[in-house]
């Protein structure tokens, strides 16, 4: 089961853009010249995170994906098992249908039709449950990352944190010196290890 991260990617971008932290104090000297943003003496106020790398390296996301994949496989095996049992029952009926009376055939066909409908409903419910759980886990992941990014931006003095993803490129180019992905992943993984203990 493939985990959809487009909602997460979009969510990180929206949350990161909404992060407005510590305002830099303005110079009181009216004649003071501003240093260009590209100057090495001035700290960057806008940085970005590569969400593809973040997700591929974030242990919490890996564990979450693995849990959801396992649940999806179990549900698939369960539905498949029930479907095979139903197919065997249909095959048995078809083998012996010639020996049954018209009333018995009609009753058996009605029972099999009900069973088929129940199987379809069961399959739909199992799929819906997996999707709900996936949406819930993605929401938790988004909240976890967004909350972390707010604190991270405040601590580092960033006014804006953008996200970059090949699938949804909101940042078309970013100087590598503005890429804080590795720092973010390291801190997130350290925090997650502490949570697991």
From TrEMBL:
Residues spanning the signal sequence: 1-20
Keywords: Coiled coil, Signal
Coiled coil: 105-132
GO biological process, one term: protein stabilization
Record keyword Nuclease present: no
InterPro entries, alphabetized: Chaperone_Skp, Skp_dom_sf
GO cellular component: cytosol
Gene Ontology MF terms in the entry: unfolded protein binding
Keyword flag NADP: no
Family of this protein: Belongs to the Skp family.
Identification of the protein by name: OmpH family outer membrane protein
Organism: Mucilaginibacter arboris
């Amino acid at each position: 089961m493939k985990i959809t991260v487009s909602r997460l990617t979009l969510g990180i971008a929206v949350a990161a853009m909404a992060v407005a932290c510590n305002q830099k104090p303005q110079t009181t000297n009216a004649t003071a010249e501003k240093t260009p943003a590209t100057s090495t003496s001035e700290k960057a106020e806008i940085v970005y995170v590569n969400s593809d790398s973040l997700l591929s390296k974030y242990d919490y996301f890996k564990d979450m994906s693995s849990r959801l994949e396992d649940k999806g496989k179990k549900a698939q095996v369960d539905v498949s098992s029930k479907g095979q049992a139903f197919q065997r029952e249909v095959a048995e009926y078809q083998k012996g249908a010639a020996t049954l009376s018209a009333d018995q055939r009609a009753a058996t066909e009605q029972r099999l039709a009900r069973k088929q409908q129940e199987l379809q409903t069961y399959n739909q419910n199992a799929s819906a449950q997996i999707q709900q759980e996936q949406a819930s886990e993605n929401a938790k992941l988004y909240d976890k990352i967004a909350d972390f990014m707010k604190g991270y931006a405040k601590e580092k003095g960033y006014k804006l944190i953008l996200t970059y993803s090949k699938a949804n490129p909101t940042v078309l180019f970013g100087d590598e010196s503005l890429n804080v992905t590795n720092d973010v992943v390291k801190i997130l993984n350290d925090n997650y290890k502490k949570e697991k203990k």
